[in-house]
Amino acid sequence: MSHAPWILRKATPADVPAIFSLILALAEYEKLSHTVTGTPESLEQHLFGSRPYADAIVAEVEDNVVGFALFFYNYSTFLTLPGIYLEDLFVLPEYRGKGIGKELLRFLARLAVDGGFGRLEWSVLDWNEPAIGFYRKIGADILPDWRICRVTGAGLSSLAEANF
Fold first, then answer.
1. CATH number of this structure's domain 7-161, picked from the four choices 3.40.390.10, 2.60.40.10, 3.40.50.300, 3.40.630.30
2. 3: pLDDT confidence band, cut at 50, 70 and 90?
3. Tell me: the pLDDT tens digits for 37-72?
4. How far, in Å, CA of 6 to CA of 119, rounded?
5. Residue 19 and residue 16: Cα distance in Å, rounded?
6. DSSP helix, strand, coil percent of the chain (3-state; round to 5)
7. Is 75 among the residues known to form the active site?
8. pTM here?
C-alpha cells in the first residue's frame, strides 16, 4: 500500500479543465505559449469522445490535479510491436522533486510491459537540461541521431493538396 501524498489515476472528463490548465503551464515553461491554439472542449472530445485519440493519467494531491501524462499508442514496424508515445508529462513546479514524475513514467512503463509493448518513448527539448538529466537518471536513452519532423497549419494543407 502506497503512503505517497498523491494518487495517480486515469483521467476523467471532469479533469479536462485541470489538464488544460496544466497544458498552458507546460507551454509557458517551454516558452511555447504562442503555439497553443487548442481548447478544453477539443481536448475533451479527443480524450473522451466517440473516437479517443489519446489517453491521460493525472496526479492528484488533496483533490487537486498537480500533474499529468498525456499519451497515445503507436507502432514499431522494426519490433512489430505496439508502443506508447508520451506526448506530455508535466508536474507543477511546487510539486516537483517528490517522485510524482517518476511515478507517472513508471505507470506508463507498467502499462507497456503489461500490454506486451515494445517501447515507451517521448521527446525532450534540447535546452531542457533538468528534464534531460531526470530522464537519463531513470534509464532513458537520449537519441542523438533522430530529429522530429513536423508539418502544421498552412504547410499541412499545402502538403495535403500537393501534386508531386
1. 3.40.630.30
2. low
3. 999 999 999 999 999 999 999 999 999 999 999 999
4. 26
5. 5
6. 40, 25, 35
7. no
8. 0.92
